[in-house]
Amino acid sequence: MGSLSPQESNINSSPTDMPSALDPVEFRRQGHMMVDFIADYYQNIEKYPVLSQVEPGYLRKCLPESAPDNPEPIESILQDVQKHIVPGLTHWQSPSFFAYFASNVSIAGFLGEMLSTGFNVVGFSWVSSPAATELESIVMDWLGNLLTLPKSFLFSGNGGGVIHGSTCEAIICTMVAARDQMLRQIGLDNIQKLVVYGSDQTHSALQKACQIVGINPNNFRVIKTTKSTSFALSPESLKLAISSDVEAGLTPLFLCATVGTTATTAVDPLDSLCQVAKYYGIWVHVDAAYAGSACMCPEFRHFIDGVEGANSFSLNAHKWLFTALDCCCVWIKDPSTLTSSLSTNPEYLRNTATDSKQVVDYKDWQIALSRRFRAMKLWLVLKSYGAVNLRNYLRSHVKMAMLFEGLVSTDRRFEVVVPRVFSMVCFRVSPSAAIIISDDEINVENCINEVNRKLLEGINASGHAFMTHAVVGGMYVIRCAIGVTLTEEKHIAMAWKLVQEHADAILMKNNI
Amino acid sequence: MGSLSPQESNINSSPTDMPSALDPVEFRRQGHMMVDFIADYYQNIEKYPVLSQVEPGYLRKCLPESAPDNPEPIESILQDVQKHIVPGLTHWQSPSFFAYFASNVSIAGFLGEMLSTGFNVVGFSWVSSPAATELESIVMDWLGNLLTLPKSFLFSGNGGGVIHGSTCEAIICTMVAARDQMLRQIGLDNIQKLVVYGSDQTHSALQKACQIVGINPNNFRVIKTTKSTSFALSPESLKLAISSDVEAGLTPLFLCATVGTTATTAVDPLDSLCQVAKYYGIWVHVDAAYAGSACMCPEFRHFIDGVEGANSFSLNAHKWLFTALDCCCVWIKDPSTLTSSLSTNPEYLRNTATDSKQVVDYKDWQIALSRRFRAMKLWLVLKSYGAVNLRNYLRSHVKMAMLFEGLVSTDRRFEVVVPRVFSMVCFRVSPSAAIIISDDEINVENCINEVNRKLLEGINASGHAFMTHAVVGGMYVIRCAIGVTLTEEKHIAMAWKLVQEHADAILMKNNI
C-alpha cells in the first residue's frame, strides 16, 4: 500500500478545531477593542510629535525577521502597534498637521469604511453587487448637484460620475479616452505626435499620467506661470504653446487645468482656458483635488465657473471632504469615450444585466477590475453631516486660514507670498525684513530662501507642528494648509507662536 | 461703511457650536454601534439571497433625489443601510458564495483596515509616515519568504515588494517599466512595434493594461490554449508567436504568465516560459492573483517553480489571504526599472530623507501619489493567524473543493471538466449523460451548453448559492470557487444538493 502524497497528508492533518477567522463573537470582541484603541489614539494624538522623529530603518530593528508561525493575541498585537508603529507615524490626523494637503477623517467616513470592508463586495459589474454601483451613481449625482456642476456631467444629464482611488488614475483614464478618440481620427501611428499641456504649477500626477499612457516625453508642455497671475495658467500662454505645436505638425490633445494648485492653491481660469481648448479641439480635465470640495459653498462656486466647457472634472473627497482615503470623485460629460477605451468583456464576467445595456458596469470606467465600495463612505458623510454642516466645516477651515493669515500680517518680519484663496496660507520671512549683507538681488533671494528652509526645518523638528514648503517664482515659501478635522483655532494660534519662536532664534543667530 | 462680502458674511454666520466630526466620545459610541451592526450582519448572512435579486434602478426609487441639508442620526442611517442597501448586495462574504474568486475578509484583515483608516496616513514618501513605508517593506519580505520566493525578489536581495490596489495596476506598472527600458534601446518612435503576449486564458487585466500604456492593439497576442494542456500556455506556441513577430520586424516586449487562471485555475509552466522569454529578452510578469497565496503551503509551492526566471510576480492577498480589498502584493527583481519609469520629483515633496537616497518612496513604485496604509492589514493577518493557521485555512478550502469534486464524480450526469488544482471545481452536466436528439457534434455541444447555462441561472436565482461560469474549449462550465472565510463543509454539501435539485428539474423538463 502506497503512502499518502504530501498534499493529502497535509490536508488530512489540518486541525478541524481551528478557530474561524471570522467568528462573529470574536469579531465583536476584537472590533470593540479596536474602536477603543482608535478613540484613545484620537484623544492622545496631541501628545505625539506630528512629524515622526524616527531614523530610516528603525522598524527592521524592532520587528522579527520573519512572520510568526503561530497566532498572536490581539492584545499583544495592539501593544506592538503602540510601541513600534505609532512612533513611526507622521500624524496626519493631528490638529497641528498643516503639511501637504490634509487627508481628513470623520466619524461618518470611518464608519463608511467599516461598512465597506465588512460587506467587502466587489462591484466591478452591476450584478456583482447592484447596491455598490447604484449608490455610487446616486451619490455622485448628489455631490455634483451640491457643486452645481452642469447637468451634462451628471447621470441625470447623460454624463456620469465614478469614484476612483486617486487623481492620477482620473487623469490616466480621461487621457486614454482623449488619446484613443484622437487616434481614431489621425491613426495609431501618430501617437508620438500627441501633446499634453499643463502649467509649472500642475500636480506631478499629470506628468506621471503622460509617462504611463505613452505620451512622448518631448511632448509634455509645462507652461510657465508668474506671480503676476498668482501662478495661474494664462490662456494666452496656452494659446501660444498650442499654436506653436500645431505649426510644428504636432497634435494638441489634452489640457489639465487646476483649481487649487498644490504649491499655492492658485486657480486656473477655466472659462478662458476652455475656450482656447475648444478652438483647438483638445480635451480639458479639471483637477480640483483639494479645492473642489469648497466649491459646494456658494461663495466659492465661482472658482469653477467655466467648468461647463471642460470634458471631465475631479476632486478628492479624501482630502477635504472627510471620507478618509481613498475617494477621488470624477465626473465626465461623455462616459462612452471612457468605456470605449477601458472596456474588456471576458466571458467569465458576462451576465444578463450587462447584456441588456441597462446598467452601469464601473469596471469600464476605471483602471482596475476590482473596486472597493467607496460610495458607502461618501453617502455616510453626506447623510451624517448634511450639506449645511459640511459647508460650515469647510468654512471653519477657511476661517482658521484667515486667522493665520492675519497673524502673519501683524509681524513685519513676515509676508504672505500670494493672496490666500481657500484654507492655505503661503508665507515666508520677508527679504525686506531681514538685513542680509549683499547687494546682489539673487544672493538676497538665496539667503532668504535658506533662512526660510531652516525655519521650516526647526518647526518640524520640534514635533509641535508639521508644515511643508514650495518654491514659486524662485521663492521658498512655507505652506500652512488647514483641513484636519480636529484642528481648532487654538492650534492655529499655537502654530503661529511656534513659527515666531523659531524665527526669533534663527534671525537672532543670523544676526538679522 | 460697506457691507460684508458674501464670503465674510457666510463665514461669520458659521455656528461655532457645531459638533466636531471627529469627537472621540461620539466616535466611540458610533464605532461600537457599527461593530455590532457588522457582527449581526455576519451572524445573519445566510438569511439573505447570495446573489442580489433586485432589478436595475431599484435604489433610485428608494433614496431621495438629493443629499440632505441637515444631519441624520446614525441610528436612522443604519436603518437605511439595512432596508435599502443590504437587499442590493450580492453577499461576497456569504458562506455560499462560490462565484468569480472569493475576496475574503477576516477579523484581522478588518481590524487592520480600521487601523489604517483611523491613522489615515498617506505614505507616498518615507517621511510622510515612515512606519507605513517600513512596515510595507518588511511584510512584503515576510510574505515573500513564506512563499520561498527567490531572494532576488526581496529587499534583502536587492529586489523589493510593494502593495498595489489591483493586478491591473501591477501589470501596468511593470509593463511601463519594461516598455521604457526597451524604448531606451530602440527609440521612442518604435513604440508601435512593441508586442505583448498572453494566452486566451490570461485575465482581461492584461488587455486593459495594453490599452492604457499605448501598446498597438494589433500587437497584443492572445495565444490559444487547448484542453490537452489543461488550458495552460504552451512554451512552443509562445516561441512560434514570438519568432513570427520578430520575423515581421516587431519587438517582443512582455509576457504575462498566469498561475491559476480565472476560468479554470490553469497553471502556465513558468520555468519553460521564462526560458523562451529570456532567449528573446522579454519581461515576464507572473500573475498569481488567486493561487499565489496557496503557494505558501509546501505542497503547492511547485506551481511557481521557475519564478526565478521572471521579472515580477504578484498575488492578491485580498482574494484568498484574508485582508479584504484591496491588497495586491507585487515583487520585482529590479525596482530601479520601476522607479525610473514612475518617478516624479516635484519640489513640494522634496525632503532630506529622499535626497539621502537611504529610503524607499513608494510613490515611485505605483500609479498614484496617495496610498493607503495597506501593509497594516497584511501585518495583522500574518501576526493574528501565524503561518501555520494561514496554511491550514488555505488547505481547508482546498479540502472543501476536493469534497465538492468528489460529490460531482458520484453523479454520472455530471463531469469535472478540468482536473481540480486548487480550491475551484469546474464542472458541468455532461453531454454523454444527456440524451440529446442530435447527431451533430456541434449541436450537442450547443445544447449541453444551454442546459448548463439554464442550470446555473436556476441555481443563482434560488438565492441559496452563487456560482459563475466560464467557456473553455467551447464548453460552458460552471465554476464552484471556494475561498470565503465563513464557508464550511456543510455549505458544500448544501451547494451540491442545490445543483442536483436544479439539474433534476431541468433535465426532466428537457426529457433528458
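qc> The first strand of chain A starts at residue 97 and ends at 98.
qc> done
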